[in-house]
Each structure stands twice: as structure tokens, then as C-alpha cells.
Amino acid sequence: HVPQVKKHQKILEQYILPGPHACLAMEAAVRRVLVSAGYAETGMDHFALPDDPLDLAAKNGTLRRNFQGYTDDSATTMLGLGASSIGRTPSAYYQNARQTEAYEEKISQNGFAVARACHLSGEDRLRGVIIESLMCQMSVNLETVCRAHNFSLAVLGDAMEALAPYEQSGLIKRDGYKVTLSSPHRMAIRVVASLFDKIERTADAPVSRAV
Asked: Which alpha helices (DSSP H) does 41-188 contain, by range?
């Protein structure tokens, strides 16, 4: 529900949208139904039958997450085609023009429809790996990731301090520099992962809600 972007969604609010407790109850009910039907929980919000490629990727630690959701595809480049689509390369994200008319105009002018792009620094890529690991495995070893990307743990100092209240509340557990979600509510990993995201957003920026 992002009426800041999709104005027509505002009309839904006259029907009184469910609050966070109701959302949690509905989400938990759906999980029970799917798990009892034999589906395995995959990442924070996907489900797959045992031995499905997604389930196998989750089990062997190769599950990935992109703008479309979870995948077993290990490609580092994804090309977004069409109006508003988002793509990525190893060094950047980009988004095409949102409106069809603007998209067509850009294509006719120079063959490309990119409206905005974000170039990734080494630290951006480090943090991206941490966030993806949390969202895919519900766990991350910060020391291992930092070493692999030639960064000191000091670069994550603020985020590690911010983890303290979540550890005290029992939402996560820490073993040295390994952070693992300990709550059965998998969607809570979004909150933990957000601590490692340094991108500043405006107050009206659309974000997904984690209840």
C-alpha cells in the first residue's frame, strides 16, 4: 500500500486497512496453512515444495534475492526492460522512466530509457551482501563478509551497536560476529537488515512495512 506513488490506492483507506496486529495474525495463519500443506519456508516471505530449486538453494546456501523476489539464479547482472523496470549490474542499479509516455520518448531519442541510476561503492556492495545474506539465510557472519570484501569491521560499527536492543529482546542472537534471527516471525529480518542500509530516504519515500 503505497499511495505516495500510486495515488489510486488512497481510495482503499475508506475501508479501514488492517492494523499491525491483524496483519501479523493473517500472515501467521497463511504460513500455517502453507507449511501444513508441505511447503517449506524460503527466505522471509516465499514458500517452495521440498526439492524445488528454491528449496534446494535455501538448503545449500545459494539462495539469492533481487527486485523480483527470491531466486536460485546466480547471475550478477539483471536487465530491466519496460517502463519503471529496475535493473542492476555489479556496479550500479538503474530504473527506467516510470510513465509509458516518458519511457517511449526516451527510447525514441537515444535508445535507452534510464531515468535514474545509483552507482555502488565498495562499501555499498559489502552492505548489499550482508542484507542479502540476512534476507536469504536469516543469518550472516559479519567478520567473514568483511574479510571477503577487504573491509574492517569498524565500517559496521554503528549497525552493530544498533543490534543491541534486538538481541536483548530476543529477536536475534549473536555468536561473536555471527548474527541470526531467533524469532519465528521471518518478516522481522527486514528490520534487522535495515540497520545495515546507509541510504538516506526522505520522509515521504515509499517503503514496505514490516510489522
From this structure: 53-60, 100-110, 122-137, 142-148, 157-162, 164-168
> What proportions of the chain, in percent to the nearest 5, are helix, strand and coil?
45, 20, 40
User: Looking at 17-21, 69-73, 104-108, 118-122, which range is the least confident one?
Assistant: 17-21
Phi/psi for 121 (5° steps) reads -85, 175
Q: Which residues contact 189 (CB under 8 A, 6 or more apart)?
A: 44, 134, 135, 138, 181
Q: How far is CA 168 from the centre of its chain?
A: 24
Alpha-carbon distance 98 to 126, whole Å?
29
List the grid coordinates of 156: 559496521
**Given this model, what pLDDT does residue 54 score?**
96
- Gap between the Cα atoms of 30 and 186, Å rounded: 13
- Judged by DSSP in three states, 164 sits in helix
* pTM of the predicted structure, to 2 decimals: 0.86
Tell me how far apart the alpha carbons of residues 39 and 48 are, in angstroms, rounded to a whole number. 5
Q: Do 36 and 54 touch, CB atoms closer than 8 A?
A: no
pLDDT bucket at 200, cuts 50 / 70 / 90 = low
* Burial environment of residue 182 by CB neighbours within 10 A (0 to 12, 13 to 18, 19 or more): middle
Q: What is the pLDDT of residues 133-167, one digit of tens each?
A: 999 999 999 999 999 999 999 999 999 999 999 99
